[in-house]
Amino acid sequence: MKVKAVRIHAQGAADVLRVELVETGSPGPDEILIRQTAIGLNFQDIYHRSGWYSLPLPSGLGTEAAGVVEQVGSNVTEIRPGDRVCYAGGAPGSDAAYRLFPADRVIVTPAGVTDEEAAAVLMKGMTVEYLLNRCYPVERGMPVLFHAAAGGVGLLAGQWGRHIGARMIGIANGPEKCALALRNGYSECIDRSKEDVVGRVRALTKGEGVAVVYDCVGKDSFEQSLHCLAPRGVFVSFGTITGPPPPVSAPLLQKLGSLYFTRPTLATYIASVTDLRASAAAVFDLLARGILEININQRYPLDEVALAHNDLERGRNTGSTLLIP
User: Fold this and answer.
1) How is the beta sheet containing 59-60 ordered, strand by strand?
2) How far apart are CA 298 and CA 318, in angstroms?
3) What's the 3-state SS for 113-153?
4) Are 129 and 158 a contacting pair, CB within 8 Å?
5) Torsions phi, psi of 132, nearest 5?
6) Could you give the C-alpha distances from 27 to 31, 34, 63, 71, 103, in angstroms and in order?
7) Does an H or E element contain 71, and which?
8) Where does the secretion signal sit in this chain (predicted)?
9) Nearest to residue 222, comparing CAs of 166, 261, 257?
10) Which single residue of 40, 177, 245, 263 could bond 172 by disulfide (Cβ 3.0 to 4.6 Å)?
11) Which tens digit of pLDDT belongs to each residue from 84-122?
């Protein structure tokens, strides 16, 4: 069966994206075939497309989607045709109408959660789960600085951090995005378009700085983030929106107060099936309890994938973005 799928034959700007007809094939013994109804768009897709992450070419794109199981392989017993499932991670290729995927790497979509909600929350929610719970466990009353607070990950981080009881300080670009962040768990939001971020953080923390900064911006915010940290603070670099940060200087970390630097990835934290399922369960539990709220603020037909990439890359979006096959 031939279906629509996004492909790239070279890495570069959004104009390298192509929507082509590709053959899906039949499930292998441990695979399932998913009819995808909603696809999550993430900055990781831009990294793959642009060349920040290397890919064998030609390649599909996308690492998150939800839909309905159409066929299962001969060894698959826990999932049946007709089940609703979602997934995040793995090799790029989710930007398609149908997809083959390993059965043990999908999550059964809970009753009461729509396919669109699942595709909008799974990857971003698991990212927040590992950042706040495992990479650096955030505690009640702890001052936390989070970049891109009005983005898909940022909004969920604000909500999750509020649930923990942390003091969530966000950074966003412009008053509208700051207002959105404040409605989603942040006690303060710094408008980086007109405020001195370091000075504002120091003022908010009575000169002490924050315990941890979660930075997905990369090169442009690296120095800024370092100078927002309290002694023995932790710099968590989990994204490179503006490019990779410069090499970390050990003497500088010492000089600024025995700081720590880490560069984690979701893939490491959900590498085992046990960790994957535990992380997804934590996300869907908070969603069911009303602690997490999904902001799906953009939807694009799959044919408009280039526009979706451009809008996300240029900071035009807030919350979660979906592609609809």
Assistant:
1) 17-23, 2-8, 59-60
2) 8
3) CCHHHHHHHHHHHHHHHHHHHHHCCCCCCCEEEECCCCEHH
4) no
5) -85, -25
6) 5, 10, 18, 7, 10
7) strand 64-72
8) none
9) 261
10) 177
11) 999 999 999 999 999 999 999 999 999 999 999 999 999
